[in-house]
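Incident log entry.

Two folding requests arrived from the same account within the same minute. Monitoring flagged them as a possible duplicate submission, but the sequences differ. Recording both here for audit purposes.

Request one:
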Amino acid sequence: MTMPQADSDIRNSLLVARLPAMPQILLKLIEQCQTESVGMAELAELVAQDPGMTSKILAVANSSAYHRDTRRVGLEQSVMTLGADMIKTLVISQSVFQVFNNFSQAKHTDLRSFWKHSLSAAVMAREIAEKTGYSQLEEAYLGGLLHDVGRLALLSTAPDAYAANFHAPDDELLCAAEQSTLKITHTEAGAWLIGRWNLDSFLADSALYHHEPAARLESAHPLVRIVLLAHLLSNYGDDHPAVEAAGLLCGIEAAQLQNIVLGASSQVKKSADYLGIDLSGVDESIEPSVSAGAAPPQDPVQQQLSAEVRNLVLVSDAARSFERQQGSESTLLETISRSARILFDFEDTIVLLLNAKRQALVGVPVGEAQQRLAEFSIALGGGGAIAAAAVQGRPAFISKSGNPLWIAEQQLLRVLASDALVCVPLNAGTACLGVLIGGVGHFQVPGLQIRERFLLSFGEQAAAALETARGERGEAARRASSVGDEFREATRRVVHEVNNPLSIIKNYLGVLDRKLEKKEPVLGEISILNEEIDRVGQIINGLAELKPAPREVGSEVNRVVRDTVRLFHDTEYLPAGMQIVANTMDLPCQVESGADALKQILVNLVKNAIEAMPAGGEVEIASSGQVNRDGRLYAELCVKDSGPGIPPEVLAHIFAPVRSTKGEGHQGLGLSIVYGLVKKARGFIACRSSPKGTSFEMLFPVRDVPEQGTAVQNPV
């Protein structure tokens, strides 16, 4: 048996301990993660059957890598926070770790009894909570599942010293033995780990006090009492004095306790059958199924090979995650930083990239409260371990207790609030794009030095993704430049072509003037003028097809609605018996779409409505306030008429370019143009029609969030 470790050393080691999970559950999780249509609820349900994976998911979801305003207990919520890609990274990381670690090879680490005890306690805790009226059923389930997580943590931290204790009965004698050998009990270890998640819950207390006598917990929080009873029932069944006392503490009678035990036993058996876990020979209490001997020592070469294979799998998965990342460079760097935190247990990270002249490393404001890094730089020729890591392309390990530090290194230690820095170069072939710096504790440095090749591989994959993203942006810029050249060339062609009909128009205007003075017929000249004017319009329309969309500057919806109605009124376009009504809000509403595009949409729709009602009617343009769609605010606009409606066969293809049935001068493109303009504005449009009228309902992204107002009707 190894020498006992100091309590502070044990606690530090618990921070980076990889808690073993049931291999059957890991296999199921890998299978689920490889399914494209995997659901977060299914993943959470599977994770919830294993204390080790549950602990990892909750810990990561509540870590600094995923900042949230509040920390709440909820496994499915945590799974959704991380997303399928990060869950897959965690599962593969855990799987590879166990395959090449003594947890899967040493006989004395059979986890079946522990798994059965924890899952039984979880199922019973949820049932007890329901019977006692405790509303947080999932919290009770997690309390039962994780109440002994300290035993997994101690086994992971000190496998040789704790092997025999892991298989000992879970009682007061176990706590005394743990205190004697490791200076910390599994109740304290579990509570300390859970406490680090900063949850708004008494989960940590439920782990800390699950060995206390029932009499001492009379005034404790209901969750603590529920977990105590679930633990005792899982250990002893319903026929034990301690169980009876805990049952009275929760207000549950003996007959109900028996039903709880039977129900849990059935559920655990179903889970075991589904997962392929053989529970034959596993006792109700946690007893060693085989002799608790020390694991045979591994061949050092085999250990190194195992580590290399593990690192290759993890780096490969990280690379796939980077490739799937879309968006800006800062978004990709945030993904890289998060992955580094997970894989290397960094507390926080900083990214420094080489400037355009490749003379200095410049800070990138990635993450929360790091805007000050935008002005931070380290000259490559100025010396120091960070600059050397970029120049030499090798990881650097910087500690407060090492050699005298450069000012920049001292500053970064304070920014990351850590004892040591790990500097990972982002090598793209022979070139270095920058460095990723992680903050760690002193005790983590030796383990990361052993994984130097893994750090290098991770940096290479991150640099490759960054270089690819930059290349795609460069290609997009080149395409934009090419479009600009085409547009300028098209403009020159249009100017040249327009001169021809304009010259003709000018000549015929002179002829027309002379003929009018002599009172001669001018119908032929007018016809020619009309034709040439139409030709000018067609040439200019050809230019419009190549012209890039102007930058959106935003507009005020209600003003555009009123201007559009005024346009029809002032030009006396409206036929007799036709009325247009503006129904707007009395407070402004800014949208991202420009005013010209918005007005073009409304004018097209109003003209269509007027043409649909030759006998007269009413057209209403309504600004109906704001709508929340998929978590984003939109302004709603609606153009309604009182016409006869649109036939179903036409409505089915309402926004497609069609041959117009309105006669000469109509191209049948009006609604397709409207649809294109709405989509360019990142909006949505729908058409609703019946014999009582037709309405076009549109949503446009809101630029600012104005206050709500009341509707006022403005007939024009």
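Request two (distinct sequence, not a duplicate):
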Amino acid sequence: MSDEIERLGRELEQVRRERDQYARSLAELSDGFDEKVEALSLVRQVGDALGESLDLRTVCGRTVDLVLEAFGPEACSVMLLDGRGEALVLAAARHAFADAAETFEVAAGATRFRLGEGIAGVVARTGAAVRLDDAATDARFVRREVDPVSLLCLPLTVRGRVVGVINLSDSREGAFEDRHERILAIVANSVALALDNARLFDALSRSREALADENRTLRRALAGPGGPIGTSRAFRAVLELVDKVADTTANVLVHGESGTGKELVARTIHHGSRRREGPFVAINCAALPESLLEAELFGIERGVATGVDARPGTFERASGGTLFLDEVGDMPPSVQVRLLRVLQERQVTRVGGRKPIDVDVRLVAATHRDLEREIAAGRFRQDLYYRLKVVTVPLPPLRERTEDVLPLAEHFRVRFSARHGRPDRPLSRAAAQALLTHAWPGNVRELEHALEQAVLVADGAEIEPEDLGLGRAGPAGVRVDLPAGVEDFHELLGEVTRVAEQRLIERALADAGGNRTHAARALGLSRRALLYKLKRFDATE
């Protein structure tokens, strides 16, 4: 009987052990099931949230928010490898690295770790996660002003390549468990893939923008003279100087009246330099108010004003190439100070930013103003002037290079006829004469517009003077063509005087809107004398 009781006792104990084991297995299974459900739910949330955007900054920010909501750490951040794969750059953060840390743009992130530096750098280099219950005791940890106690860092890996890391930190000891690491490892795969897609899309967008900029540049080049056109002595001297300075690193100041082709000279310098494969970026300093000019030149950070996104300035966009500052003489004094600092330091700091950004830019500036006179008047900085004018290229006005008028006109005529699909009408002898006698106060730009108008409005076999819309005399004076030989000096002088007098009177009448009294007063004549001269001109024609 006692043996039977003993046997039953042993069986009962076995049942109890099996029951306990079963309970433990059931609990483990339940925990595992709950963990799988939690993981799948989080993966689905991550997929839904990240699938809505291909913007890199948005993906990083949403990742941080989702992890904070799912795991409840005190701080979370995402760091991405830079373009060269040499360092991690802070891309997004909440309460990490600063008490009020928000989302950062990659280019603006001040926090960086080289590969192997700090826990994040070690994870990025090895591709293995690190979990610490007391981070301060680990020699790899980089101390900061406020150190976390618990730390969990996982790599973001795509196709066997680490693209970044995700960091969780907390002031409580042992805040992260095995399950956190397991679930986050699953989520990290989805995050890494979304980040890689966003990066590819960002690279594609940048390439598309660069291609569009290049296309616009080429279109502008084709829309103006394909290259400097001119055989006059004055213009040949310009081309010789440009050829000497193009393949150097010297800053160039182009000085000339409006419409003389200063940007074309700047492009010629760029395409003749070693930077020809780099970007050519142009900005007109007179076309923007002071606040916008600063943002366009130096860039601006996100959040400086409501609705403002971060964007690079022309110095960043032109890095590796040439930046053309047109009408630099109209630049406000405060912007001049910042420009001088950029030229000295070779670094820019965006509006609202604190981190300097290295730039490698060759500067070509242009102005129609007398900068030495502007310096004397206190409107332009002398130190900036000498920074800009390492070499000065004086660009002559069109009236001083008359030999170039007809070649330029022929170029514009052919181009605009093809562009607008109009018949290829040549210039008549009278139209060519009108072009040669015009004063061209608007220089090459005025000539270009005159030829475009002529191509559009001409309806005869040739382009005639009235198609050009110039009038018989320009506001800067009159021109009289002399014959090759002189047979009777006094007769010729009288004819030249008559023609000059007639054209001056015609111009005065045009300026006075046909009012003969006002025209006579402008010429210093009596009204009777003006009427007499007009009558004499009618009799001789």
